[in-house]
Input
Amino acid sequence: MLPLFKRRRLDIQHFPGFGGFSFLFYLYLYAPILVLILYSFNANQSATVWTSFSLDWYRAAFNNQALRSAAGNSLLIAVCASVIATVIATLAALGTSRGARFKGMRLSIGAIMLPLVLPEIVVGVATLGLFSSIGLSLGYGNLIIAHTVFCIPFAYLPIRARLEDMDLSLEQAANDLYAGPWRTFTKVTLPLLMPGIFSGLMLAFIVSLDNFVISMMVSQAGTTTLPIFIFGMLRMGVTPDVNAVSTLILAVSVLFVSLSFLLGKSRT
Amino acid sequence: MSALHSLQTAAVSIRSVRKVYGDPQTGPVALKHVDLDIRDNEFFTLLGPSGCGKTTLLRMIAGFEFPSAGEILLYGENIADRPPYERPVNTVFQHYALFPHMSIAENLAFGLESHPMGKRLGKTAITQRVSEMLALVQMERFADRRPSQLSGGQQQRVALARALAPHPKVLLLDEPLSALDLKLRQAMREELKSIQAKTGITFIFVTHDQEEALTMSDRIAVLAEGQVQQVGRPSDIYEQPNNRFVADFIGETNFLPAQVETLADDHALLRITGGQLMRAAGREGLHQGAQVTLSIRPERLQLVAPDSPETTPCTLVEQIYLGTDLQYQVSLADGSHLRVRTPNRAGQNQSFVPGQRLGLQFDRESASVLLD
Output
C-alpha cells in the first residue's frame, strides 16, 4: 500500500536517470573552473599537461611586478567605488522605504535597479564617450566614477531588503521613548541596518573587482585593472600563472559573496 | 463648577476627533466623531472588534497618527499636532518592539536617556531607575540578556517596564496580552492591574477581548464603526447595554421583542411575546405601546417545571456541557430560540431530555431595553 502511494506522487527525484542528469548539469557548470584550479597547482610549464603538484605559479604571479600593480589598482578602485556606492545606496534605500511616498517612487526604484540589466558594452561605450567629450581625465577617478554607477544597484538590493524586513514599530518605539528623528536613526535604524549595509558593500566590492567590459573602455595607461591585465596575459597563450591569478580572484570572490550572503541572512 | 471639575481631572480628553485616511472627502473613515474623557489614575479600556478604530485612536494619543479634525487634550493641553517624542505618554506595543540590539537594561534606559529631563538625570540616577523598574516587573536577573533570549511573557514585562521608566503621564497599551497563551494572559491581567494601582499612572488599554476589558477596567468605551457606542463601568456595560451591538459584543445575550405596557418614573413594564411581564430600567424615547428589543443574559434565565407560576412555556432543543456551566437552548411558542446558562453544581442539575416541555423563568430586573 505504502510504495504504491509513494509512486503516485509525481516526485521528480524518482524519474529514471535523475541522478546522472544532475551530475552532468553540475559538471557542465563547474568543470572549466575545476580544471583551472587544478592546473594552477601544476608543475609543468605547459598549461595542459599534468605532471606534479607545485606552488611555483603562485610564486611567479606574486613576483610579477606588473601583475601586482594591476591588482593594487583593482583593489583601490573596488574599495573607493564600493564605499561610495554603498553610501548612495543606503540613502536611496532610506528614501524609498522610510520617506513619505512620492509620485514616481516605483519609477525611481526602477531607475536605481536599471544598471543591473543594461548591456555592459553599451554603458561602457557611453561612459567612454561622455568622459572624452567633456575631457574628463582623472586617471583612477574615471574608473571609480564608472564603477560606482554599476555598483549602486548591487549595494541597494540587500540594504533595501533589510529595511523592508525591519519592524516599523521599533522606530516608533524609539520615537515614543522621546528619541527625535536623528537619535532614532543613529541608535535604532542604523545599527539594525548594519548587516544589510555590509552585505551591500561586499557585493559592490566584488562586482567592481571582477568588472572587465566597462573597465576596458574607461581605463587609461597606468590604471590597468587586474581583469584587463589577465586578458593581456592571455594574448601570449594560456600560461599557468594566469590560472594561479584567476584562482586567487575566484577565492576572494567566493569569500566576499559568502560573507555578504551570511550577513544578509543574519538576525540581530 | 462640574464642567471645570471634569476639565481638571481628565487625563486625556478626546474632543470631536475625526480621522480619515487619504482623501478627506472620499478616503476610508477610521473614526467618525469621537468624544471621550479619560480620568486621572484610571484603568480605561477601548474595546471593540478589529477595524472599529480603537487602535487608530490609541495611535493618535501616542502621536503616530494625527486627527483629521478635533483636539486631543492631555491634562488640558492640546497635543494633537505634536510628534510622539514630544508627548509625555508611552506605549506598550502589541509585539513589544524591544530593541533587539540592546540588552534589557539598555532598553529600559533608552527612554530615560532620550528624555530632555533625563539628560540632566545623570548616569547613576538612570541606572537606579532602571533597576527600580526591573524590580517592579520582577526581571532583575535578566538585565544583561538580549530580548531574543527571553520568553514572550518576559518580553512583555520588559516592554511594560521600558514604557513606565520615564514616568509617563499616561501609559498606552495596544493589545499587549494578545500574543500570550491563556494561563500567562490571566496572570498578566492581575499583574497589570496591580502595577497600575502601584504606580498611579493612567492606563489606556486597547483590546478586542471583552473578558479582559471586564476584568481589568475601571471604565470601558465600546467602539464600533468609528464611533463610541457606550462608555461606562464594566457592570454598566454588561447589565445595561445601550444598543444591540454592545449587548451582543459583550458576553452572550438573548434578544426578545417586547411591547411597552406601562411607563413609570424610573422603570418600564414590558410584555414579551409569549405573555410574560418584565420590568426594566426606563430609557429616554420610550412611549406606551412601543415595540422594543430586550436583552436578557442567559444566566438570568432558569428552567423550571412546565406548570410553575409566572413562567413562559418552552421546549428544550439541546443541552451543551461547558465544564463550568451547562448551556441549554430552548424554543418558545413563536419559534424563537433562547439560550439559558446555569452553573455546573454537583448534584443540583436536573437532567432534561431534548423535546421536553419546560417552564422558563426570568429574573426580575434582568432585562435591559435596547435603543435599536
Remarks:
- Chain B is about 25% helix and 35% strand.
- Residues 2-244 of chain B form a domain with the Rossmann fold fold (CATH 3.40.50.300).
- The two ends of chain B are 34 Å apart (CA to CA).
- Chain B has two domains: 2-244, 252-370.
